[in-house]
Specification:
The chain is mainly α and about 30 residues long. Helix content is about 95%, strand content about 0%. It has one helix spanning about 1-29.
């Protein structure tokens, strides 16, 4: 169960990073 929670946190971080990258790309346009 503890490992699953860590995986879920990692997924959230990846999603946040992906959103941040998208925002940066939009600014470059």
């Amino acid at each position: 169960a503890k490992k699953k929670e860590e995986e879920e946190k990692a997924v959230e971080v990846v999603q946040e990073e992906a959103e941040g990258v998208s925002e940066i790309e939009d600014d470059d346009r």
